[in-house]
TrEMBL record:
Domain Heterokaryon incompatibility: 59-154
Official protein name in the record: Heterokaryon incompatibility domain-containing protein
Superkingdom of the source species: Eukaryota
Annotated Pfam families: HET
Native organism: Glonium stellatum
């Protein structure tokens, strides 16, 4: 990751927060589930799926193309493992890139639909998918990985 690119993005965020009242995002209630990336200064920290009931903080959202081979999901079978934590190198490239950017910008929490909504669970999907507009609207910022055809390509 290019330090000058991260510095540029940070300056855009700082300017936006200082000068644009319409897009300044205050810390907000975290979604039902988010990925806790750990202390941004500890890049080796495990990434854990957490349920931060009532917690207020900044988080980043990822908008991405799933592609055909998306196997890195939270399901009923993988829920406990995702809560226990996974290493950065276990994540597909698009998720890995989003984690790196989020950490580099000093944000601890990241929301990714395929990990934060339990896939294959109809009730969870109905409940959580109905909140997606708010999830994206209330995020500190959204990373749009639109140039990738799947999560296996990455964006950095």
């Amino acid at each position: 990751m290019c330090p000058s690119a991260i510095s540029q993005v940070q300056s855009w965020l700082d300017r936006c927060n200082a000068e644009h009242s319409e897009c300044k995002v205050e810390k907000s209630l975290l979604p039902t589930r988010v990925l806790d990336l750990g202390n941004p200064l500890e890049p080796e920290a495990k990434i854990r799926l957490v349920e931060p009931i009532g917690q207020i903080d900044h988080y980043v959202a990822l908008s991405h193309v799933w592609g055909k081979s998306n196997t890195f999901l939270t399901t009923q079978d993988t829920f406990v493992a995702k809560k226990t934590g996974f290493d950065l190198d276990e994540a597909p490239p698009t998720f890995r890139d989003a984690i790196l950017v989020t950490r580099a910008l000093g944000v601890r929490y990241l929301w990714i639909d395929s990990l934060c909504i339990i896939q294959g669970d109809q009730l969870d999907w109905q409940t959580e998918s109905s909140k997606m507009v708010d999830v994206y609207t209330k995020s500190y910022f959204t990373i749009a990985a639109g140039n990738s055809n799947s999560d296996t390509e990455g964006f950095l």
